[in-house]
Each structure stands twice: as C-alpha cells, then as structure tokens.
Design goal:
The protein is of the alpha+beta class. It contains five helices and twelve strands. The chain binds biotin (BTN).
Length: 237
C-alpha cells in the first residue's frame, strides 16, 4: 500500500479522482484537513480541523458489491477493538454511537470510476465541538470515550481489518458481514421513515446482497442503497 499524506488539500477523494491513471492500486491519500470535503448527496463534510481523520483509498479492478458495507464493518471492528465500545452500523454507510440519541462518528463515501473504486472515509476523532448545523447529530470518539484518539493507531488498525475483510469477502462472500451488520444495525426493529416519508416501515435487517429489509403491513420489501436517500427513526430509545 502506498500512503500519500497532505497537510491540507481540497478533498482526498478528488485528489485520487484527478490523478487516477498515475496512482497504483491500494494508494491511500490522507489529509490533516480538507477545504472541500464532501459527503454523500453533495453534502459538505466538515474537515477544516485537524482533529478529524480524512482519507481515501483507491481500489483498482474491483467489481465487488456491496463494498461500502464491508468497509463499514472494518470501521466497526476498528472502533470496537481500540476503544471497547460497540458502535452501530447505520445502513448503508455510516457508523454511529449512542449518547442520549444516535450520533454519527464516521461516514463512508464510495465512488466508482470505470472499473475503479474510491473509498472515502471521514472519522470524527478528537473534535471538541461541531458546527451548529450538525452538532446535534455528530460526535467524536474523544467526546464519547473521554480519551485522546491517536490518528496513527486508528489508521493502522483500520488497515489491518480492512485488508483482512476485503480478502475474506473476495473468497467467502458477504454472509459473515451480513451477520455483523444485522447484529449491530442502527434502528433494527424500529419504525423508520426514509426519502421524506415515501418509504416507511419496520427495519428488519439486511439481506444476502446487502439490501435492507423493511416490513410494512406484513410484507417485507428489500431496498438497495440507491433507493434510500435518508433514513430516520422517531422511535424512543
Ligand atoms: C458521508 O457521510 O456522507 C460520507 C463522508 C465521507 C467523507 C470523506 S473524508 C475523506 C474523503 N474526502 C472527501 O471529500 N470525502 C471523503
């Protein structure tokens, strides 16, 4: 694996995108801060502070689906292993912890460019506070654990899990990942509403393809990540 580390850059995701032909498989680009960090659906990913971890990994010639869920499992394992806390996996691409209510600690953005995949990961490590518009639903691992989080240690542990998980997934498929996701799924068995209320029902789990299963009026529907833009639950915890 080749590691390129910037102090500041527009976006690690966009750096890989614009240099894709000159970069080798498994190149990882890390930045201490980004001034145009992006999340899914064109959202801004606040990255001005060096307290967060912002990185992207290039995987060439990869067709495996559902890769983003496998990455989510690697992040889940990293947090569980390092800090002895059990986070939630918010399908399809986020990691949450629970403090009075579920709050996001990490997000994943997977983009395909021809036969290449760029996996972008943002983790809230040591932020003490967040911009007002997200302060209600974002949290850092430091705020959650009360301890300083080592960026280096987080990254190396993540890579250990990530490469093991990718290898395992390539040879054995999604089933083992499906169970980890099912067991740690945010909003499992809760009434959820997605896409501004156009999708509603009880979240029952994840199927063998990584789609979510939503129960409505006794029927189970399977929905893929492209069909769900935002998912919330108003049920009490
Ligand atoms: C999301 O939750 O919507 C996904 C957030 C992904 C953010 C990461 S930070 C590193 C990489 N560079 C970006 O501009 N975005 C991703």
């Amino acid at each position: 694996m080749k590691l390129i580390w910037f102090d500041s850059i527009d976006s690690t995701q966009d750096y890989i995108k614009s240099h894709i032909n000159g970069l080798s498989d498994d190149t990882c680009v890390v930045a201490n801060s980004q001034y145009k960090g992006r999340g899914r659906y064109g959202h801004v990913w606040y990255s001005s502070l060096k307290d967060g971890l912002y990185f992207s990994i290039l995987k060439k010639d990869i067709h495996i689906e559902p890769l983003s869920l496998v990455v989510g499992v690697s992040l889940f394992k990293t947090i569980k292993h390092l800090y002895a806390i059990i986070p939630f996996i918010k399908w399809p691409n986020d990691i949450y912890v629970f403090l009075e209510k579920p709050k996001k600690v990490a997000g994943i953005l997977v983009e395909k460019i021809r036969e290449n995949v760029i996996i972008g990961i943002g983790v809230n490590l040591n932020q003490e506070d967040f911009p007002q518009d997200i302060s209600d639903r974002a949290i850092s691992l430091k705020l959650f654990t009360g301890k300083h989080i080592s960026k280096q240690r987080f990254l190396t542990t993540f890579f250990d899990f990530f490469y093991d998980d990718i290898d395992y997934f390539k040879s054995n498929g999604f089933e083992a990942f499906r169970h980890i996701i099912d067991d740690n799924l945010l909003y499992k068995d809760k009434y959820i509403s997605a896409n501004g209320g156009r999708v509603q029902g009880v979240l029952r789990g994840v199927d063998e393809y990584g789609n979510i299963l939503v129960e409505k009026d006794g029927n189970i529907f399977s929905l893929n990540a492209g069909e769900i833009e935002s998912m919330i639950s108003k049920e009490m915890w």
